[in-house]
Amino acid sequence: MNPISKPVTGIGWRAPHYRELLRDRPPLGFLEVHSENFFANGGQTLDFLDQAQRLYPISLHGVGLALGSADPLDDTHIKRLRDLIARTQPVFVSEHLCWGSIAGRHLNELLPLPYTEEALDHICARIDEVQDRLGRTIMIENVSSYVRFTHSTITEQEFIAQVCQRTGCDILLDVNNVYVSSVNHEFDPVAFIDALPAGACKEIHLAGYDAHEEDDSCLIDTHGRHVQSPVWDLFRHTVKRLGPRPTLVEWDVAIPELPVLLNEAAMAAEILNDEQAVAA
Question: Which of 2, 94, 138, 196 has the lowest tally of Cβ within 10 angstroms?
Fold first, then answer.
């Protein structure tokens, strides 16, 4: 495992950039990949990852475990993830605090949970089981959302904090998701971040969003464009609040040329370096 020795920036490594990145070896702090893309027992894709993990620290980011779903946890999925962890020795393993399947059908969405005591008990038990079976701590990521449940009795930030306290898991704080949800649900994104347990926040995500075509008061977490100015501003506050953390730029649709992603990561690095200089 290549460790992360200080707060650094990285990018989400996607298929259009596999060969170019391995060839050019840009100076990144780490790479993040979607775990499920590497669940095969062999093949070229897994060979690419083997090469990458000799060059960069790797973060495994899951999108399909459906931690909050009512279906039983998928034994095959967990075994494949465990095997991938053994193969790559990642610095981080993360999943989303959401649900996304029912009756064996996956919806290809990261859907928000109701923030209730019942849901809290359910997801804590599931995270405990996953961590026990993987033999390591995982990070949970806050998702962007477009609806809320009227019967929720706990705020999202309190829910996340209680999950961490009860399971010992860490937080992958997606600053873009906080901002998108804050606009959609009219809450203060700064207060949201300030309420999270700082010590549990181990990694930060940045990404781009779009406004809804018919309603510009609704933002959509597309991961398909540059990080927007309000998210950069919220990121600056986040770094001041938490201290510098390993920070990743995600871009998953309409993927640009690699230098565009590297420039976004460089902008994040400048903010991290500024805060480190202030702290020093």
Answer: 2
